[in-house]
Amino acid sequence: MKQITKTTASALIVLASLTAPALTEDKGMDTPPPDNPELSEGAELLNRGFQLLLDGLAKEVEPMAEKWAEGWAELVDRFGDLNAYHPPETLPNGDIIIRRRIPLGADPAAPGETEL
């Protein structure tokens, strides 16, 4: 997974550096750059390579995405409405707790106890 992340990040950086000049505005330059067949062929090969890389990454991530979707569905089933919970808290010992806004055993309509 770590290698997938590194490869994806590298591909995106290279892709961004190749497309950045195309996105800049033309400031008074009406003449197109000279046609260089080697450069055009290289750009086409890079484009095809990136396409193959991204297709391969998509195929590799697809099974994980299905597992994540199953896990997410399980979480939603377990917790239900997330508005019923306070934001997570981290205790000094590193534990993370998620408190309900209304505890399960408490009935909000029931009157509270009174001392005599």
TrEMBL record:
Swiss-Prot/TrEMBL keywords: Signal
Cleaved signal peptide residues: 1-22
Organism domain of life: Bacteria
Name of protein: AAA+ family ATPase
